């Protein structure tokens, strides 16, 4: 039961993550300087759903494989990748939340947007690495 909920959360989270990658990077690849219009509306709508799925998914994941690296049922490398991904998620989410209000001057808001961009690249690469590892694990 717990395993099937975990697998469902993982799949929904992965789907939301893929949509965030598409709505985040595609407008930049199309040559736009910043994310605007429907790209931003879709991105900002999916983001809270993704954040909730990450929080629930992380909780279920830690419950099933444990915090430490000893005697873990999961491949050690895959586990390290998940930890780094979860650590990257914190500056990724906080940077954009702080950049969207007027607490900081525009130079810092610009810096925060860059933190969002570079941690997003990091999360994307880590997700690819993780999927590669789990594919190898299945043989
Ligand atoms: C944690 C939840 C997230 C929230 C609340 C969020 C929100 C936003 C917002 C509001 C923007 C527009 C910023 C602006 O142009 O002023 C943005 C841009 C962007 N987001 Fe996210 N996002 C989240 C997660 C992600 C994830 C997981 C990725 C990809 C892995 C991602 C990739 C991007 C990219 C590439 C941009 C464009 C950055 C730029 O113009 O330099 N975001 N995000």
Task: Quickly list its features.
mainly alpha; single chain; 139 residues; 4 helices; binds protoporphyrin IX containing FE
Which series of helices and strands comes N to C?
Answer: HHHH
Termini separation comes to: 25 Å
- Work out the number of β strands: 0
Bound molecules: protoporphyrin IX containing FE
Provide the gyration radius in Å. Answer: 16 Å
* Whole-number total of structural domains: 2
- The structural class is mainly alpha
- Regions with pLDDT < 50 over 5+ consecutive residues? none
Largest sheet: none
Portion of residues in beta strands equals: under 5%
User: What's the overall average pLDDT, rounded?
Assistant: 92
Summarize the amount of helix as a percent range: over 70%
Shape: elongated
Number of continuous helical runs = 4
Please, what is the oligomeric state? single chain
What does this protein look like?
- This protein is mostly helical.
- The chain folds into 2 domains: 1-47; 66-139.
- Helices cover 81% and strands 0% of the residues.
- The protein has 4 helices and no strands.
- It has helices at 2-29, 37-65, 76-99, 106-137.
- It is elongated, with a radius of gyration of 16 Å.
- It starts with a helix and ends with a helix.
- The site of protoporphyrin IX containing FE has 23 residues, from helix 1, helix 2, helix 3 and helix 4.
Write the layout of secondary structure elements.
Blueprint: H1 2-29, H2 37-65, H3 76-99, H4 106-137
Helix pairs in contact: 1-2, 3-4
The structure holds protoporphyrin IX containing FE.
Protoporphyrin IX containing FE binds next to helix 1, helix 2, helix 3 and helix 4.
